[in-house]
Amino acid sequence: MISRARRILFAFLVIAVVTMSAILIRLRERAQDRLHIVHDSAPLIESAESAPQSVTLVIPDDLDGSLRTVQRSQSLPPDDSTKARVLLETLIEAFHDPHSTHPIAANAETQANAAESVSDASARIDDVFLMPVPRGAAATNSGTLAVVDLSAAFAASHPSGIEPETLTLLSILGTLHANIPAITQVHFLIDGHPAETLAGHADLTRTYLTTDIATGTPQS
Amino acid sequence: MRWINNWASFGLGIFLSVPLALSGQAAQSLQPPTSAPAMPPAPMAPHAAPRFAVLLDAAHGGSDTGARLTATFLEKDLTLDLSNRLRSMLNARGMPVITTRLSDAMLPPSSRAEIANRTPFAACILIHATATGSGVHLYTSSLAPSAPVKFLPWQTAQSAYVTQSLKLSSDIDSALAHAEIPVTLGRTSLQPMDSFACPAVAVEIAPLQAGGSTKARPVSDESYQREILEALAAAIDQWRNDWGQQP
Fold first, then answer.
1. Chain B neighbours among A 197-216 (CB < 8 Å)?
2. Which of A30, A207, B145, B195 is the most buried (most CB within 10 A)?
């Protein structure tokens, strides 16, 4: 014979489980809605209404291993996460320029892949997520961590080598920090997954500080 | 638990000289080359001077081909060839050399670091090649320098040697400049270099682009390769003198 107290307790637990399930389902739906809003409404194309502003791109030069800053006028979305994605798309667009000093997909091994990736701008950067730097994750706990999700097509078309890969990472770090100073750390993914290297050399397992551009800048 | 295992194997490898498990190919390549001069017996006295030995790490290998330098020329093949030739040059100068691989074998970064950290090497040279840029790219670790301590974290062991690595890079830079080969110096995060507990420099050979007084030379150019290797051998010889004068 089950006591009345136990029956009440069981009923209470069943109600609690059902209530919590309903809450979790609702929270999940809200999170999915937020993600859809970010993906669907992110204006990757310049908005006609937004006024152009000066942006800084850090462009590498493969011949002497240097980095130079280039000013451009461009309309940017107000949201920092989307702004970061637009900036990196613009930066990589510059790499694909026929007169680029840091050509990507310019050599024989990658021309076929490049033709596919160039035709689709969104294939280069899957997404950029911004979040507060996790507490205790590094010596500097302030600022924003940018998680840059590169596409596998971009990684496959990237020239393999210590110098070209290092210069690409430094130019991304420099461009993000120059335009969104709140970004202090950057972590890279490829197609949403952690990767060991960009194209066989530069280490992607670590989180980079945007100040790394000062120590990593090659000197001729 | 991974870091505990790493620390443990590092400590054992460095301070207790316990042999670490390696693949058959890697273990074979640990043997000094037969053309190498007979090494002096291991010093037994506690205050004996450390022996000068060089580690050459031919990057990539096996299914890890590295960069495609031309339609039929892969980075892994060039690095192995350069490693073998540089080893012969250094042996001829009386320097004992150990290479991480002697054939087209796949060797993960952790195994390369184990080889580098088993013996206290005076210089560790990582040999790479690329199809972009010009001349030779010299890269040292971008880790912040730290004071040497008894136990080093495996992933950042190089931090205790960054200062020496920069000096070694400077010697190589001078030798290449003397050979009139353009050099680009830089810092990077590169595995397995960041785990090496020795003065370490990554030497990346790129084609020579045509300039004011220079003509274009591909990385496959034998004479171009020989000039670079001779400069590297001279630089390591110079480093042996510098290293011997360190306190």
1. 197, 200-203, 205-206, 208, 212, 215-216
2. B195
B23 belongs to a structural domain: no
The answer to whether the Cβ–Cβ distance between A163 and B64 falls below 8 Å is no
Size of interface A-B (CB pairs under 8 A): 109
**Alpha-helix runs per DSSP H in A96-144:** 111-119
3-state secondary structure of B104: coil
Q: Is the dihedral of CA B164, B167, B169, B171 positive or negative?
A: negative
Domain count, chain B: 1
- The reply to whether ipTM tops 0.85 is no
Of the candidates B36, B29, B31, B32, the residue with the CA atom closest to the CA atom of residue B91: B36
Give me B182's structure tokens: 């353009």
Domain assignments of chain A as residue spans, ordered by start: 1-49, 51-215
In a domain, B182, yes or no: yes
Domain limits for position B117: 43-244
d(CA A155, nearest CA chain B) in Å: 13
Going residue by residue through chain B, which has 247 residues, state the pLDDT in tens, using 9 for 90 and above.
344 444 434 443 333 333 333 333 343 344 333 333 333 333 333 444 568 999 999 999 999 999 999 989 999 999 999 999 999 999 999 999 999 999 999 999 999 999 999 999 999 999 999 999 999 999 999 999 999 888 889 999 999 999 999 999 999 999 999 999 999 999 999 999 999 999 999 999 999 998 777 789 999 999 999 999 999 999 999 999 988 777 6
Two tokens at B170? 């400077």
B26 located within any domain: no
